[in-house]
Amino acid sequence: MGTPAEEAARRRTFAIIAHPDAGKTTLTEKLLLFGGAIQAAGAVKARGDARRARSDWMKIERDRGISVTASVMTFEHNDCIFNLLDTPGHEDFSEDTYRVLTAVDSAVMVIDGARGIQAQTRKLFEVCRLRDVPIITFVNKFDRESRDPFDLIQEIEETLALEASPASWPIGMGRDFRGCYDLLHDRLVLFDRGAGDRILPAEECHGLDDPKIDAALDPVLAAKLREDVEMARGLCQPFDRDAYLAGHRTPVFFGSALKNFGIGELLDGLERFAPSPRPQVADTRTVAPAETKVAGFVFKIQANMDPNHRDRIAFLRLCAGHFRRGMKVKHVRSAKTMAINAPVFFLARDRELAEEAFPGDIIGIPNHGSLRIGDTLTEGEDLRFLGVPSFAPEMLQRVRLEDPMRAKHLQRALIQLAEEGASQVFRPMIGSDWIVGVVGPLQFDVLSHRIAAEYDIRARFEPAPVDAARWIEADDPKVLERFVEANRSALAEDHDGALVFLSRNAWHLRQTGEDWKDIRFNAIREHR
Ligand code: GDP
Hints:
Alpha-Beta Plaits; about 30% strand; Rossmann fold; alpha+beta
């Protein structure tokens, strides 16, 4: 074990962002296979999708006791330790997804080669952009008919306003997919479909004129490759690590997760280019990973993993120091000291390793509700990490109680669920019905179910005359006061007491914004 600085330097903590079906699960599996998976944990439910239960994967699960549905997956490659944080996608897409992105240092964006940038890709990308998270792109499924690589690159540049530098260049596609030319190392990496989708050892080339290219490819493909690569080099920005780290440029790899093609190059790219844990901004100063005092923040809560105990696991991203089991840290919000006696480690190949963690690592802390999203734990002086956001919900409904006598209980349940990040709750200044906001519609079903099962309360969600929620702020408190007086019927407080404007429709929001130019209507709020 090295110092926090040395251990941090070999960590890569990242997430995969993708539109459903682009191949995130397949790529995750392959990365774990390729790197030696150490351990992964945090699974709550099995995905009910049979196609995910592929036999090779089941076998890894059995052999190594890991799960694809895990929240954190740790694997090694060369001397690097990779922490891959799962972003729940698909139907249960929620704020959780967004917040996971606050706990990573970089991301891999997977794009389906036939479909290009899709709605969810763009949404997740925007969240990365907010924090300038550097992105490596993997264009997947080149073993199928795909779009022209130039087209795809142009689409990335135009729809995401992100400079794209090809790191590899595909040779053919679909049934004629022959592999890639590795632009970073001048190598030919061939894919041999005839021999059962085997990947041949890379052939080092001395530039594009190397006769090895002619020996390996038929003349038409060789000519096209030369032409494409020359054009790509002429048209696209060359890869530049600083521009990548600043979040302005993305290296683009082409491959096929299903056929194992391009995984090694991607992993190499992550190792060489992706940032190790970055300094984290706190309210009083920036905290560097090399610091010796442990500090970290909670970015996710997973509740009721065991329905018989109302337990929660708080996921803490370590930002500094050397964490040891049993150590005492200060919970800054409550000013209390906590002994972390039973942490869940995700880096736990054997018992000895399970005792400690370093910057970039995630630990799970069982608790009974004392830890909330955005909380800071620290061994050093008081500080609060910034940047764990709440996003304005996209769907808002009113909660109706079947038994009005249970109003206090409902209030407690709604606030607890909001603290955990499962939903947002707003108490209008006028009227008594609580408004609940979520990002995805399925969350309402999950919420009613949890309110019934965990709190024994019957409640229904009903449409509310509310279209959007915006946190409001003004530099001048007098302006804010006047605004509140004039708009009382459209105002509410969230579970933290922050002021929220609930608009009736898009027009109402736009018009109010125009009428009150000194008021900021924020779609994002930071936890403090
Ligand atoms: P996710 O929804 O992003 O997690 O996507 P999955 O990994 O579950 O993949 C969606 C579908 O695409 C599955 O049927 C996969 O087998 C398939 N798939 C994933 N990667 C590839 C690939 O590289 N080539 C082909 N042909 N199919 C792929």
